[in-house]
Amino acid sequence: MFDKLLKALLAPAPAQLADNDARTALAALLVRVARTDNMYAAEEVERIEAILMQRYGLSPFEAMDLRAQGEALEAQAPDTIRFTRALKDAVPLDDRAALVQALWSVALVDGSRDAGEDQMLRLIANLLGLTDVDSGLARQRAQAAL
Length: 146
Prior knowledge:
TerB-like
């Protein structure tokens, strides 16, 4: 099902993702962040679906389906570095801080902050071309919104 997308992600110089592939890649990255602390809580699932509904104007059923696709892709996806670099090409710079804020909201929604999540978000922000300061501000906005 994801063969074409996985090939694109594994390519030495990945091409820009198509819109549907970028949506699935974002869903998978949200899932990857949620699973970083080895606890995939119901709050995280709900938060991922809320992010997908808001970002893409999806119905609850469509968001649930996209999250499920993201879970499947995340389980098969390459390392986070290639995965995030391919997503970087699909998301304009102005939207990347909002993306990191969404990722932080998933990491924080379960009420605990894990060192592994901090490390993962730091890596992702850097790969998306954002600074630690940008990531810190995104985290603060995510905490305030929760």
